[in-house]
Design a protein that fits this description.
4-stranded mixed beta sheet; 4 strands; Translation Initiation Factor IF3; alpha+beta
Length: 101
Amino acid sequence: MKGRERAELRAEAHHLDPTVHIGQHGLTPTLISSLDDALRTRELVKIKLGKQDELKPKDVANSLALATNAAVIQVIGRTATLFRENPDIEKKHGQLPPWRR
């Protein structure tokens, strides 16, 4: 992914609310499945990380990206943004992207 594309996605993600929250149980198969579903339907997903002191947010974001075959767009504080394009979603010129619908 090029820098310009990543910058555009960061700008789009600024207004999104976190869709997936990582709680006290950490990275469970259920959480990864939920994130995978969110990426399939929305493509751009914001994740709120819990208060686990033993894990660094960038490490958690990279682990989630590997598990879901997504790209890490940004990590700010305890919030990460991931993107995975879904070729099955029909995109027309002038139509809102799936994360805005």
